[in-house]
Structures are given as C-alpha cells and as structure tokens.
User: Fold this.
Amino acid sequence: MVVNVHFIREIPAPQLLSLLVAIAIVTSLARYWLFTFEIGDQALTINSGLIFRKQLHIPYDRIQTVQTKRWFYMIPFGLEAVIIETAGKSGDDGDAQLPMVKVAVYQELLRRQHAGSAISEVASVSPVSVETSEGTAYKINARDLNVYALTSLGIAPIILGLIYAYSKFSDVIPREWLSRAISSVQHAEWLMLVTFILGVLIVGTILSYVQIVLRYYGFTVTRQRNQIVTRRGLFQRRTVTSDLDRVQAIVVKQSVLRQLFQLATVQTVLASTLSDDEESEMVVMPVLRTDQVWTVMPQFLPWLPTSQPVITAIPWLGQWRMIRNAVAVAMIPVVGWVIVARATAGWSLLLPVIALFLGRYAGQHTGIGLVADYLVAQEGSLFSRTLTLVPKKRIQAATIQQSIWMKRVGLAHLAVSVRSGDAEKKGHRPLSTGEGRTTVL
Assistant:
C-alpha cells in the first residue's frame, strides 16, 4: 500500500488535526453502538468489534470477581463501568468490561451468579465491625483513615520522584544562575541542605497523604452470605465483589512505622487478578490494631483462626547469613564508588550500615508455623513485615532449595505457591519463609 505523503503534507495543520479528531470520534461512536451485551439465564454474552466482530460467553459459575468503577461525573447519570474476571483472564483489563452501564446491571449480574439469591446493601455501621441482619460490615472512620495515610511508606517513591524531577529541572536552569545562587549561600551550605531535605519530606508526605485519602475515602467492607465486598474512593468509587471460596490466602502487612503503633493492613490473595490495580491483592482492612486482626477478621472470613498463629523464627545461623548476604550485596556499589570517586567515597559507607540493619530486620521477622490446616509464613523485607496464612488445600506447590553450603549446616529455602490471577504467586513475597530449617508439610 502506497501512501501519498506529499498530499498529507499539503493539508494545513489545523485541518489535519480536525480530521484526526473527527476520525477518532466516529470510530469511538461506532464501537459504542456496535457493543451489545445480554444477561442470559446461564451466561453473560458480549458482542463487540468494529471490523472483526467478537462474541464472548462467560458462564456465571466461572466468574471470580466483579468490579465496578464509577467516576464522580457518572453519578448524576446513574452509570458505572463493570469489570468481570475469571481465573483464566490474561492481561490487566479483565475478561470483559461493560462501560457506561446502569447500576442495576451490577446487581443483576450478582443475582444471576448466585442463582437468584437476593443481594442487598448493608447500611453504614460503626468503625469496628458489627453483625447486621444482612451480614457483617466495617466502615473506616476519619481517625483510622488519617492514621493509615500518615503511617504509609508510600512517601518513599514520591520522594525519589521529586528528586528525579529536581535533577531534570536543574538541567534546564542556566549554569550561571545556579553558580550565583550557590555562591551566595556558601556560608550556609548545611542550612541549605537541611532545608532542601525537609522541603522534600514535607512535600512527599503531603502528596502521599492526599493520594491515600483519595484512594481509600469512605472505605467499607461487607460480608453478605458467601461474598465479600469492598468499596472505596472519592473521585472514583470502586467496588470489588468476590466469593469467599475464591480467597487463596490472607496477608497481614506491617511497615516498621505501623509496627511501632501496633497497626496492620489485611489483604486477600484472590484466584483472579484485580484489573489495572496498583495492588496485587484486595485490601479488606486498611488499618486495624494488631490485637484485633484475629478477633475481627474471622467475622468476614469464617475459616480464619481466632488467635494469633505461633511463628517459629529461623535459627541464629540463618539470621546471620541473611545479614551477611545483605552487607555483601551492598559492598558491590561501595567498591565501585571508591574506585570512581575517592573524594566522596565516605558517603558510600552508609550503604553497608543500612544493609546490616535491613538484614538483621529480615532475619528477626522471618519464620514459619503450622496451625491445624494452615501454613503460616512470615517474612521481613525493607523494614516491612508480611505474614501470610494459607489453607493447605490452597497450596499449589511447595519447593525446598538447598545449596551445598546450606546443606552442611541444615538450612534450606522453602517456597510455596498459590493460585493468583493468571499465574501462581510464589517466591519470597509474600509466601516464602526465607532461610530456615527444612520443613516438611
């Protein structure tokens, strides 16, 4: 196919832009009018495609999760986007999407999925949890939301982004301006450095706080019969509905800051992957006191134990090896720094010191336990502690790895795998026990 480039060049830029916009609008409208769906007795049928028509059938008993997304501008029209996912989905867009449909479509899909059982709303309840006539419900209050936002370590990537943006911005500023500004404050170098660090921390904290508050504003979780439903968001209201029997594992996460305040975040690993979500697991409790995890959560997930599982920590020899490995890895850039820039190599000595604390933290918070029909694995990484509880019947595979050096001292790596979306979730996060004594399931 030969394209007349000269003809395209002869079209004025405003007219060419208008033509491209018109083509995009016509194409979008055509796709919208040709998109149809039918909620049948046994399956959801979706017809789509502009040139190549596609027909998709999703039996209701194959649905893993149902999500809705509702931007604030869709509320006056009673519309929302519905995303249906099965365990066989691929990619990040879900098995099927119903854009701009009536809110009643979501309720009808749930009703058909559960063979006519009524799905009703649970009223707003107290900030802990309460039994109602229709199920158990929890709604986050303002205090818990503020605590959750302020104790988040989400500030770290924001600070790195601010530093990166500053480095790019400084390249644009003329060199003579920077030299003049630096020379004018040479007598206060440390003051300038401290001011810059404090400014980055304050801005990063504010941005992290706002991001989390907008994401988890009005967070609620309800258990309605055999379903667990979460709702959250200010400008975009998101709802995720999943059957309890689709839950593969429970993950309890604590950053070092939240450990200090005895707080935890509880998430579930589902057989399906939450589409285009920033998290790989579904949050069912953003912030909860550590001593309440095993008393409150069984009201939403009845198969959970009602007491804190006992974790057997790895032996000191395994902890020492984790410290040694962390420091050894940190020494690699230190050696390079000393060779390339000897004058500033002193700062590089902070890396092995930080690595020492990271390795010590990881060793102290890594362990494994067996509770009735559950495997409990705990791991410490980057000053965050993750405890995962997996029913044995959900385990897809277990792997024990030993190097010749580990075999001599009776140590091994244990990793278990569970179903999570398109593939298995396995490895050191969150289901690995790290280094520990060989354990037979």
Observations:
- Residues 189-216 form the longest helix (28 residues).
- The mean pLDDT is 75.
- The first strand starts at residue 36 and ends at 39.
- The radius of gyration is 27 Å.
